[in-house]
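call fold(seq) -> tokens
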Amino acid sequence: MRSKFINLLLPSICILFLFACKAQKVDETGTSPTTKSTDVLLPGKIQPSSTPLLSNGQSPEPTSQSTPDAMRFSLPTPGNQPITAWRPPLYPVPWAISPYDHFYFVRPIAMDQKNWPNPDYRYGGVFFKPSAVHTGIDIPAEVGTPVLAAGPGVVIWAGWGLYTGDPANKNDPYGLAVVLQHDFGYQDQLLFTVYAHLNQVEVTPGESIKTGDLLGDVGQTGFTTGPHLHFEVRIGDNSYYNTNNPELWLVPPQGLGVLAMRITDSYNNPLSDLEITLVAKDSDTEWTLRTYPALGVSGDPYYQENLVISDLPKGKYTISFQYFKKQEITIQILPGQITYLAFRGLLYGFGTTPPPTEKTDFFLTPLP
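ret:
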């Protein structure tokens, strides 16, 4: 009887064992795709709703998006990792082909290290749905990896308690962190960069810093599941509520570009948490992306995007997503600059004309 029971149980055990092995398979970068180095930060701000009206007086199109479940738990979607840490040299900073680009900062991890954003948990990513929104990017790195100043400025915070404002709070979600107020601004507003989850800090408040100076080294202090650098760009005020997508501010490596998208309904209301597929036509490399959530992060002052992906090799890419039916377009990523793409619902479709410099009741030139 015992032998018969074991024989019945053995196939189930084998299946579980094979599943476990598959889940822990290590990719070519030497990291397990099921192991995430991600932040678990506190709730962000509520974005103001956008309700522009169309001149044709048509009624709003229906929405295909469901109300978020407050109890839903979601891990970041696995993405593609480059198989080598080598990167081409950066363009010189500041770098801006377009008058509205602002590649002002170098990478806070040296170019001879793995220094690209974690593709599974970008700006606006959500770990614990719907409240914990990611207000920066994560750069996976080993404990002790030097963290460098992305630009010149003055140290205005160095230590514990950045989120709560209490230097004695060692339970602060940012852990050990450094904040720089930079020697330059943007549109008459101050600029700040944040370096969080450090293992140790090598600077003090009030210290003047040059680009590339050592600020500390990578750790896993604060609310995090593994060692990495959390990096933020803040505009106007040193506040958790004043962040911008760092991928629009970090200068790209030579030959690589950045894609910024604004995906909305016909009435210019952003479509949040929408899954986007990006495929490189030259290599068939595929990325799975999501637009920003309805809460927690803001778009660029000019682009007003709700999705960004950087470090894309120049070339043609196909973008697709489901919005009542499959929406698809092929675009060209240009090196050293931001390629802009917009989709404005069923009434207008895709277009590539950049946003106007003044607020008008406009859309963009449809693609042929």
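Helices lie at 2-23, 345-348.
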